Amino acid sequence: MNLRDLRYLLAVAEHGHFGRAAEACGISQPTLSVQLRKLEELLGVTLFERASKSVVPTAACERLIGHVRTAVAEADTILDVARSLRDPLAGRFRLGIIPTLAPYLLPLVFGPLRDALPALAVEPWEDQTAALLDRLRAHDLDAALLATEADGPDLAGLALFTEPFLAALPPDHRLAGRDTVSEAELAGDMLVLSDGHCLRDQVLAACGAPGGGSQGGPLGGTLRAASLSTLLNMVAAGYGTTLIPGLAAGVAQDAGLVLRPLSTPAGRTIRIVHRASYPRRVAAEAVGGVIAGRLRHFAAP
Amino acid sequence: MNLRDLRYLLAVAEHGHFGRAAEACGISQPTLSVQLRKLEELLGVTLFERASKSVVPTAACERLIGHVRTAVAEADTILDVARSLRDPLAGRFRLGIIPTLAPYLLPLVFGPLRDALPALAVEPWEDQTAALLDRLRAHDLDAALLATEADGPDLAGLALFTEPFLAALPPDHRLAGRDTVSEAELAGDMLVLSDGHCLRDQVLAACGAPGGGSQGGPLGGTLRAASLSTLLNMVAAGYGTTLIPGLAAGVAQDAGLVLRPLSTPAGRTIRIVHRASYPRRVAAEAVGGVIAGRLRHFAAP
DNA sequence: CCGGTTCGATAGATCATGACTATAATGTCA
DNA sequence: TGACATTATAGTCATGATCTATCGAACCGG
């Protein structure tokens, strides 16, 4: 059975006249007659009683026509809804963001995103890299802002900006007077984030430690801060030093910390990552573009 | 847009696998791929995100799929309802019957009709010939039992049985002793029905009067009985004589009348009449057949 | 690292069918 | 009866749905 034929049926029922119904459908009268007869044969029911001057729906047709109207209306609804979904820069856009980035980036880009992509409802989701990758692969996220490379051929990423790592010191720290600080000098009393934060691994790597393992070696003692905010407060309280990403500089200074560039600059590159097969790639690229544009002055040397 | 393609969409959504979905649809996998891509192009929306080991509905697909299910379900409903309507010997059958026939015929045939055509809901409608013809032509009746020929090329009729006219006399009438009665002898004090009853015209014609006109001539005086029942009671009360159709004989005898055959037999033929274009002709013929079978012993010579 | 497997996409051939034009058949009306 | 209106039929054509065969990419086990 064909939706087209159902539309023909409705046209004949409406006009009570094959010729005018055919005209309304944009087809010739013989085509309408043939198709309607086929439909009648398919259904096994005579739909219209044709007399010389009248075409009247049969009782069977009356019983069916409500369902026919519903089916055709629903098909039209499908087309309408599809039309409204056609714009890739519209609809929900679930964006994962790592915790060491979200609090400092979102306030900067939320407004510009709303302005540049008003139809796109960006919904941030904050979690650590591994969890975001899981959700991304499970189609629970459209994209994620990560500080690591896309970690498989099923994912694709686009670099947006690079933020430098800065040494964060208590004001009374012995290195606070320097213009630049070397990582080796920091290593002795450096505090790091808890496992799972990519920033932890990157900071350890920058300081020459064997990154990744849960064993921090000589670094950081027993402290494993759950959030960058906690870490900053610990440093401000004089428990040690740390490295922070550039975007957190404002908050760190507000907390009373002294920030110094590293003598051998290091940093991390923020990427927007999505599934390689993600069909709304343009949306991800548009979001990335807006963020990159807003963050251009952080571009790495 | 095609219902077939919508079914394909549902199959892919259900199986998450093109090959198995194609098998479920009874088509080859390439056909499914091509048709689904065409649907996506028509809608302007990507429906599934294809990756190497997964086929996942997009957000757009999730928004659409409810409507798709509804449309397909409604189409299936159309097929189901049509199947249930396929039997022409089922459903309502609105049957017009003239007033001089209905009270005497219906008690005889209602049971047999229910037995022979249990799925056919015969709904009697009692009115005079002209009104029945109007309703028939207006598609308000499926058929009518009339005592006249089908009166136009747009109608078709089937003779069912013939009932003789009988002279109905008061028991003390001067002719009550005869074996047969001639129409001429009756004419003097014959009572007739009011205008519109076909029986009136036929009785007048049988008695040699110029039938049809509202002017009864010497016949019937001023009495114009509205129903055969009234007429019988008037005759029983001694106000005159009349001719009655054979099926009313039982009731007439119960009313105490003397019935006598006519010396030159006359009668009327009952037909089932329907529109020439009526699509359930078999239902009309089946109803007619049951009635004719029940009335076979009334068959005219 | 490599051959086998899985799975969707593509190409080309085939065939069903929806569409057209022209015409017939039928009933209506003057 | 002839002119008109209306639906049905016949014949032809083009679109498009389907098939088989094959490709390409990703994954997997040795």
TrEMBL record, chains A, B:
Protein origin, superkingdom: Bacteria
Sorted UniProt keywords: Activator, DNA-binding, Transcription, Transcription regulation
Pfam families membership: HTH_1, LysR_substrate
Endpoints of the signal sequence: none
One GO cellular component, as annotated: protein-DNA complex
GO terms for MF: DNA binding; DNA-binding transcription factor activity
Annotated ranges, domain HTH lysR-type: 1-58
Family of this protein: Belongs to the LysR transcriptional regulatory family.
Protein name from the UniProt record: LysR family transcriptional regulator, hydrogen peroxide-inducible genes activator
Source organism of the structure: Falsiroseomonas stagni DSM 19981
Taxonomic path: Bacteria, Pseudomonadati, Pseudomonadota, Alphaproteobacteria, Acetobacterales
